[in-house]
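To the structural biology subgroup,

Please find below the input and predicted structure for Sulfur carrier protein ThiS adenylyltransferase ThiF, which we are adding to the shared reference set this quarter. The sequence is reproduced verbatim from the submission form. If anyone notices a discrepancy with their own records, reply to this email rather than editing the shared folder directly, so we keep one authoritative version.
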Amino acid sequence: MKIFLNEIQTEIEENCTAYKLRNKVDKNCDVVILNGFPLKEDKVLKEYDRLTLIERGKIPTKDELERVMIARHTPNVHNKLKAGKVAVLGLGGLGSNIAISLSRVGVGEIILVDYDVVEPSNLNRQQYFVKHIGMKKTDALKSIIDGINPFVKIKTKDIFVTKENIDFLKECDIVIEAFDDPKNKATLCNMVLRNFKDKYLIASSGMAGYYDSNIIQTKKIRDKFYICGDFEHEAKEGEGLMAPRVAICANHMANLAMKILIEDIKKD
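Predicted structure (tokenized):
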């Protein structure tokens, strides 16, 4: 009988169980993942099951790490995400969270776009550390992602986005607007909607303060254009952007991008 053991096709005996095979291969592997889900009790293996064995606390090789990621997502999902190309425009509270979530799920290529540097007030909601203060956000975020998922191809652009310099969006499947300034948000969305009608656009509106998390939502505005947020609570004096709601909105956007790559975009 054939199964995939650590993503390598392997011949095993009939009625073999996951734990029995684990004990035969390496008893030190204390995390056993079957078809993308960690096992809590032993189970008989079926033809073409995918079994991944992991030794807790041991740093895997690069090949082993990729096989583990494939196992958690299943190959079909993993391959679609790996083929995806997403541009994240603005690397503040939204963009830094979005980029990290997309890298964790294994999106193959992410273009990080921002012209700013990390400064102390960013740390209340953005995914940077004290050591990054003064660094370009593109460089700081790239270094973080490199430590999370070395299989993601990261491109950086230290630019203020204008209609004269957005040709790079032609290579993307999805454009994510993650600016703080409402005027810049509107300008970017209009540029993308006019000039890149074949691209998916995900924008945001309303995530300030500490209001109910459940009013943040994802809305389809028209074909290939979505907005995430509560559509009401913009940042203003006395009501700033705070980590929890910003991260919730960011992950609405990241989850939508993932869904589009898996379900809507057809790759050859």
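Summary notes: Residues 243-263 form the longest helix (21 residues). The chain has a mean pLDDT of 94.

Regards,
Lab coordination
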